[in-house]
Each structure stands twice: as C-alpha cells, then as structure tokens.
Write a structure and sequence with these properties.
The protein is an all-alpha fold. 63% of the residues lie in helices and 0% in strands.
C-alpha cells in the first residue's frame, strides 16, 4: 500500500482494450449503418451498408478505439483511476467526431463536450442507476433503521399538518361524528361502510 492508504495501481493493457472496444463499437456502427441503408429512398443493394453508409461504421469504431486507448493510457501514465482519465479519453473521442466537420473549432468543441460529459458522468458515480448498495448489509435491517431514523411521532405530524389527507389521530371518528352532529344535526353511525 502507498503511504496514503490507496491501493497500488495495476497497469492495464491499453491496446487489447482498444481493440475490443473498436470491435464492439464497430459492430454498433455496422448496425446503425444497416439501419441508415434500409431507410434510404434509393434502391441501394445490401453492399450499401459498406459503400454508401459505411462511414458510420468507421466513425463508431474510431471513437470506441480512441476513447478506450487514451483512457487506459492516461490511467497508466498517471497511475490513477479517476474521472480525469474519462475526460481525457472523451476529449480525443470527441475530436474524432469533430474531424468529420473538417474544422478545428468543431474538433475542439466536440472534444470539450464529450470530455465534459464523460468526466462528469464518471465523477458522479459512473452509473445511471446510482451507487450500488453495500451487499454486506441486510436490506430489511437497513430499511428498518432508515424508518426508525426518520419516523416522526404522529402527534408532531398532526400538529404541523392537521387531520385529513390520510392522516388521522386517535379518536378521529368520535370527533368527526360530534362535528357533523353539531353542524348538520345528523347522527352518523359508528361503523358506516362506504359504497364503492
């Protein structure tokens, strides 16, 4: 362990990961190219996936390979696994998208946009569904502890909100019956079932 109790960084294979990512995103690009080819107005043959809309395949493959290679290379050089690696990889991958526009501001703009998106996504946990709960804690006990920690006495809730809207204190039915008897002169039965 290092002096500040962080685990020692283990270098990763950037080329192997980049090749794997290139193949995966190249396959996604092939799928999108096939969709683009099927939606064209002209009658293009099946080879149109490669000849007419094949640039999508190359773009996706280049983005995937570039992002993964630069991300892992940055992590290996910095010997840290954090959001900056994602941002650096995102900048280079966004630059690939900007190259299609053939302008330097587009390269910088797309690179900065993707770097920001990737960096913030990784910094906030890197998951769309939030952080993973600790698996060593029993979920029932965890939820009971949360309920005990956040539960307020009914008297305090009634004092702040009053009765109604599904919140009724003890003796509510008697008070309701007395209030209706006083206002309207109608005696409400004790156990009245409501018609559905």
């Amino acid at each position: 362990m290092a002096s500040d109790d962080r685990p020692v960084y283990q270098p990763k294979d950037a080329i192997g990961a980049a090749a794997r990512s290139t193949m995966i995103l190249g396959g996604a690009g092939l799928f999108l190219s096939a969709v683009q080819n099927s939606l064209t107005r002209q009658n293009v043959t099946g080879w149109g996936v490669i000849t007419k809309t094949g640039g999508t395949i190359g773009l996706f493959a280049a983005i995937g390979g570039t992002f993964e290679f630069v991300r892992i290379a940055a992590a290996n050089l910095r010997e840290k696994e954090d959001a900056y690696n994602q941002a650096i990889g995102g900048f280079f991958a966004g630059g690939i998208v900007g190259f299609r526009m053939r302008s330097f501001p587009a390269v910088i703009g797309y690179g900065a946009a993707l770097a920001t998106l990737q960096g913030v996504f990784e910094y906030t946990g890197g998951k769309l569904n939030g952080y993973k709960a600790d698996s060593s804690v029993d979920q029932y006990e965890r939820k009971e502890q949360l309920r005990r920690n956040r539960r307020r006495p009914i008297e305090e809730t009634l004092q702040e909100l009053g009765e109604g809207r599904g919140i009724y204190g003890p003796g509510y039915n008697e008070r309701r019956r007395e209030r209706i008897q006083k206002r309207y002169g109608v005696d409400v039965a004790q156990n009245v079932t409501q018609a559905s």
